[in-house]
Design brief:
The structure is a single chain. The chain is an alpha+beta fold. Helix content is about 25%, strand content about 30%.
Length: about 350
């Protein structure tokens, strides 16, 4: 609350205990003009400026975040690949120039938002009913985002006649205390020569990455040593990797073995007794009316020493899968008791609510 107050938001009229941890997700009401000014602080490298309706009149300026934090947040919000999983590509959040953008939909669909900034302008859009009645079939990406796109494109076209040096290839330049490094895509540590999947990420210069300790080469074969908490996931990954390698080997029989990535020889983990990994007990799930129902499923997954796991919901069998594999259950409104049963007679249970 103190941070958001420094960011110029003035609508918090309750105590921090009233808002609770949900404040980090936006459970408090804010004003559009103040929220736009707060996002503009990131576009200015972390400096907040009080909004002013008179061009050229200086306003109050204060440091809100470090320049590095502003650059990192901008890099995250302007990454199309980060949005692709949820929103796909080619929609209202795609631009011919870099744009850092965030959508939001409030509880019970009372309103939705899209806020973002380019190198030159910050734009905010609110969509809702003035009488507070919920919106129908409208979320941040379907309601506010198309308007945001139109305003942002128009604002940038207006800037083409101003001395702003369009087109911009970046929103913010990297700061001196940040560096782009290659990391292991699995562990997040600094990539070693045997990490099979890598990507480049921005890191702090003063805080060097710890090298990845999950991947090792032994007798010409890649070995992966996973932390204990990934035991339920490892069998899934191992079987998928084996299938991919088999397909690759059949498709390229003429390729010598030394030119193929080393094969994983083993994955070491310690698996606990039967435990439900997904969903967590007590979770609440909301059916999104703006998304297709066939894609709104709950993954049922358990950690077990070995053997198949049978799943029941409210006493009815909904599927079975090997330990570490998942069963997809289409969301149904109501309160549900989910049980996992293994071949040794053990049972684990979780209760969820779907609205």
């Amino acid at each position: 609350m103190r941070f958001l107050g420094r960011a110029g938001l003035t609508t918090f009229d309750r105590t921090s205990a009233h808002y609770g941890l949900g404040l980090t997700l936006g459970n408090a009401e804010v004003r559009l003009d103040e929220l736009v000014a707060a996002y503009a602080a990131f576009a200015r490298g972390g400096e907040w400026t009080r909004p002013n309706s008179v061009v050229g009149r200086p306003g109050e300026v204060r440091r809100l975040t470090s320049a590095r934090a502003a650059f990192w947040i901008t890099d995250i919000l302007s990454d199309p690949e980060a949005r692709e999983y949820a929103f796909g590509r080619g929609g209202s959040l795609e631009f011919p120039f870099p744009v850092a953008v965030k959508t939001g939909t409030s509880q019970a669909y009372h309103d939705n938002w899209t806020i973002g900034y380019s190198r030159h302008v910050t734009v905010g859009v609110w969509v809702g009913n003035f009488d507070r009645t919920p919106l129908r079939n409208s979320s941040g990406v379907t309601g506010a985002a198309p308007i945001f796109q139109g305003v942002m494109l128009a604002a940038e076209r207006r800037m083409e006649t101003a001395p702003f040096g369009l087109p911009a290839t970046t929103i913010l330049p990297p700061t001196a205390d940040t560096a782009e490094q290659e990391i292991c895509a699995l562990s997040g540590g600094g990539a070693n020569p045997w990490c099979p999947a890598r990507r480049r990420e921005w890191t702090a210069v003063a805080d060097p990455l710890v090298p990845c300790g999950w991947h090792h080469l032994s007798a010409g074969r890649l070995s992966t040593f996973l932390p204990e908490e990934y035991g339920a996931w490892s069998s899934d990954a191992r079987s998928t990797s084996d299938e991919a390698r088999s397909t690759s080997d059949m498709a390229r029989p003429h390729v010598a073995r030394e030119h193929i990535a080393p094969r994983t020889s083993h994955v070491r983990v310690r698996v606990r007794p039967l435990t439900i990994v997904s969903p967590p007990d007590g979770a609440t799930y909301l059916i999104d009316p703006t998304l297709r129902r066939e894609f709104q499923t709950l993954s049922l997954k358990a950690a077990a020493p070995a053997g198949p796991v049978r799943w029941t919901i409210d006493g009815r069998v909904v599927g079975a899968a090997d330990a570490g594999s998942r069963v997809e259950w289409p969301l149904v409104p109501g309160r549900h008791r989910i049980e996992a049963h293994d071949g040794s007679g053990r049972t684990a249970a979780a209760t969820v609510v779907v609205r």
